[in-house]
Each structure stands twice: as C-alpha cells, then as structure tokens.
Amino acid sequence: MLKLEHLKKRYKTGPWVLKDISFEVPEGEIVGLIGPSGAGKSTLIRCINRLIEPSEGNIYLADACLSKLSTSQMRTQRRKIGMIFQEYALVERLSVMENVLSGRLGYLPFWRSFLRKFPSNDIDNAFEYLDRVGLINHANKRADELSGGQRQRVGIARALAQDPRLLLVDEPTASLDPKTSRQIMRLIQSICRENGLPAIINIHDVPLAQQFVDRIIGLQGGEVVFDGKPDELTEDVLTRIYGDEDWHPEPQDDADELEQAEVA
C-alpha cells in the first residue's frame, strides 16, 4: 500500500506546488491523476519516489517511510518502484533486451552492473516480460528503431523487470495515437490486475482515464479537489478541476460535415 500524509512541495522561490496532499492507494488499485497543466501532477509522482524532494509530509510504501530515508536507503527502496516515463527514457543505442535488463541494475553488485553481466534468471525473466508486452521478436533491435508505442512497451517491460511493488506512470499516452494509447492503457491495466500492483497514472486524456482506471484524483492548484470513482466525474466536477467549459460535444453543422466528407 502507498500512503501520503500531508505532502507539500515548494521550490526555493515561488508558491506551493503541492499543498497538503493526503491519500492512500491499496494493493491492486489503479489511480488516474488528472488536472490542468501546472496542477502539480508530475511533481507529485516524482515526489513519491523522491526524484524531487518533498518539502513537508510523509510518504509510506508498505512499512517504509520513504520521505525519511537517506540517499542510500532510498536507492534500495526505489528499485521497488517501477517508473514509466512519457519520454520513454530508453538508451537509444542499446538493444531492447539491454534496456529491459537495465531494470535489474539496482539489484546487482557493482562489478556486474559495470560489466552488464546479468544472471541467467534475469535474462530469462526479461524474455518473459518482452513476450508479455508483445515485443519478443524485437529483443535484439536497437531502441531507436522502434515506434513510439513499441518504446513505451519496452518501458513497461523494464519497469516489470524491477519486480516492483508500485507503478508510477507519467503521461504514458501523450505522444501516441488513439489506438496505441488504448492498447498501452489496457496493457498497464492488465499487468496491474495480474500482479496486484497499485499504480498512479498521470494522464491528460480524461475519457481514457475513465475507461481504464479504478479511481480518479483531480488536482487543481496543487490541491486535491476530487477523489472518487470514474463515473462520479460529472460536468460540475470537471469544471471544479479544469475551470469553466462547455463539456458537451459541439454539434457539427451541415457545412462542416460536407467539408470533412470532401477531405476524406
């Protein structure tokens, strides 16, 4: 279980980016984190694994208080937190297999990690993870030969290689087309279900979040302004999160439809 208690973040100059954030994520629950740009979503995710240091508050993962650990202690705990990045964060010149195996570096002694000498069990597991994300036939390709969707799948396989207890996912579909976005979200959902993994997904696409997450937390100005089920995300709630907007689809007039038909 992940638990945040009164988490706050402010940089040396400027206002509070996060203001007194408290919530829990039980095992197996997938949380969609939504809100306008600048609401603090990415900062919150990075505070959880202390890629950004919180200013105040506590973060618990199972029995460990992450916010009070030393740098070396946090390095040990961080290997239990799988991170999937918007920009994929792959080493382009390395193969797909090598990128997946990099998820095991935190478990290896220095000489093995320096020489990239992975135990055979890690290699066998990496093949299983690549098979799970549908990339078993791309194991020897360089990462820079892959499409955006394939790169994101490598990032998911790398996170799985860590044998994590928590998944943090930052805008996994921002650079992907609608079909690939749905495939990636479905893959993350099924992996969390299979492994009982809790996950927090920072996502801008609200309809996509509603389809694939169990719970939605809405941030506005660094504060939680909504925490509930996807079907509770009404127009009033969306307005509270994003501001005034007409949330109904705009009807197209005949001229627009004719123009689209001609383009098609």
UniProtKB/TrEMBL annotation:
Alphabetically list the UniProt keywords. Answer: ATP-binding, Cell membrane, Membrane, Nucleotide-binding, Translocase, Transport
- Entry membrane topology: Peripheral membrane protein
Q: Which Gene3D superfamilies match?
A: P-loop containing nucleotide triphosphate hydrolases
Q: Where is the ABC transporter domain?
A: 2-246
Cell membrane among the record's keywords? yes
- Location of the protein in the cell: Cell inner membrane
CDD domains noted in UniProt? ABC_PhnC_transporter
List the InterPro entries: AAA+_ATPase, ABC_transporter-like_ATP-bd, ABC_transporter-like_CS, ABC_transpr_PhnC, MetN_ABC_transporter-like, P-loop_NTPase
**An MF annotation (GO) of this entry:** ATP binding
Residue ranges, annotated region (Disordered): 244-264
Q: Entry's SUPFAM superfamilies? A: P-loop containing nucleoside triphosphate hydrolases
Q: Where is the composition biased (Acidic residues)?
A: 252-264
Keyword Membrane recorded: yes
Any stretches that span the bilayer, and where are they? none
Protein name (record):
Phosphonate ABC transporter ATP-binding protein
Which gene is this protein's source?
A: phnC
